[in-house]
Design brief:
Elements lengths: L3 H15 L3 E5 L8 H6 L4 E3 L4 H13 L3 E7 H6 L2 H10 L4 E6 L17 H5 L5 E4 L4 H12 L5 E5 L17 E4 L5 E5 L3 H7 L6 E5 L1 E3 L3 H10 L5 E8 L4 H7 L7 E6 L10 H7 L4 H20 L1
Parallel strand pairs: 1-2, 1-3, 3-4, 4-6, 5-6, 8-9, 8-11, 11-12
Antiparallel strand pairs: 5-10, 7-9
Helix pairs in contact: 1-7, 3-5, 8-12, 9-10
């Protein structure tokens, strides 16, 4: 299976042909995949070199000129390093654009901590009005990329990863999908962690919701699942910083008795970089670890309620 990032350049190159508003801004990373598009659309495919603050600023400048910029590099260089430009050049000026990241939380361990960005979504949560897509399969990435570019002048972040589920689901850029129904609690699986969550919850009486668009947070789907269960306890399993969406869950269920557990990437830096699978295990995001953490949390809630 190809990767989400393998789909990125072909999809956006087609969008360049289809829509004269679309423009692409790169910072060296990924430029080879756009060579043909750059020759065809030299005024709308721009490589600024290794200048990430300029990358975002140039994207905002294109938005000021009426274009729909697609801005791409690794997540750590796209969200963390030029955060001030995202905050001011896009946010303060009321401009829209599409930020598309690669490398996710730890997709390239050999690159070291400079190339890891588990805090990207939490950082964007400090700003207003960003839609955040976290696809879990290359087909979903293609769908969500098209949604993002077509989203008028909205601010959209698309988080691509080499991690992926075995099969794609019909995502629509808005709603959570109900993958499994149960009465003992709700587990929200985000993007490429769905397969791990399904394996972890096999045989457990829980509902599993699949989230590929996490901002705005689908409060209606969560309330529906929590209302249908005997317990409004919720576990959110995210491929980025643990606890990123716990506030969103609390807001959605503010009028209901509930507990929430946020599982994701821990704050502790792993200095022996290893492989992606080793990072999953170290952060407790493999199926075996998740089963123990999820069942322990939900069973503890049952004990409290029945005591």
């Amino acid at each position: 299976m190809d990767t989400m990032r393998d789909r990125f350049a072909p999809v956006v190159s087609r969008l360049l042909d289809e829509d004269p508003r679309v423009a692409v801004v790169l910072a060296e990373i990924g430029k080879d995949a756009f060579e043909a598009a750059m020759r065809k659309h030299p005024d709308r495919v721009i490589n600024v070199g290794i200048r990430e603050q300029l990358l975002v600023g140039a994207g905002a400048g294109l938005a000021l000129a009426g274009l729909r910029p697609v801005v791409h590099t690794f997540a750590s260089f796209l969200v963390e390093r030029p955060f001030e430009q995202i905050k001011l050049d896009f946010g303060h000026q009321g401009l829209g654009g599409v930020l598309v990241s690669a490398a996710a939380s730890f997709d390239w361990p050999a690159g070291g901590f400079t190339h890891m960005a588990p805090g990207d979504v939490a950082l964007l949560d400090t700003l207003d009005g960003w839609t955040v897509h976290v696809p879990g399969h290359p087909d979903e990435a293609e769908t969500l990329l098209r949604h993002a570019v077509a989203a008028g002048d909205d601010k959209v972040y698309v988080r691509l990863s080499v991690q992926a589920n075995a099969r794609a689901l019909p995502v629509d850029g808005e709603r959570f999908l109900t993958v499994r129904e149960g009465r003992g609690g709700v587990v929200v699986a985000v993007g490429p962690l769905l397969d791990q969550v399904l394996a972890a919850t096999e045989g457990l009486d829980v509902s599993v919701l699949y989230a590929t668009t996490v901002r705005p947070f689908d409060e209606r789907a969560l309330r529906r699942a929590a209302g249908a269960a005997d317990s409004a306890d919720v576990v959110v399993v995210e491929p980025y910083l643990a606890g990123t969406s716990t506030a969103a869950v609390n807001d959605a269920l503010a009028d209901l008795p509930h507990r929430v557990l946020g599982l994701g990437v821990g704050r502790r830096e792993l200095r022996r970089y290893g492989q992606v699978e080793e990072h999953l295990t170290a952060h407790g995001l493999d199926a075996g670890s998740l089963r123990g953490r999820i069942s322990g949390f939900l069973n503890a809630g049952t004990s409290v309620r029945t005591s």
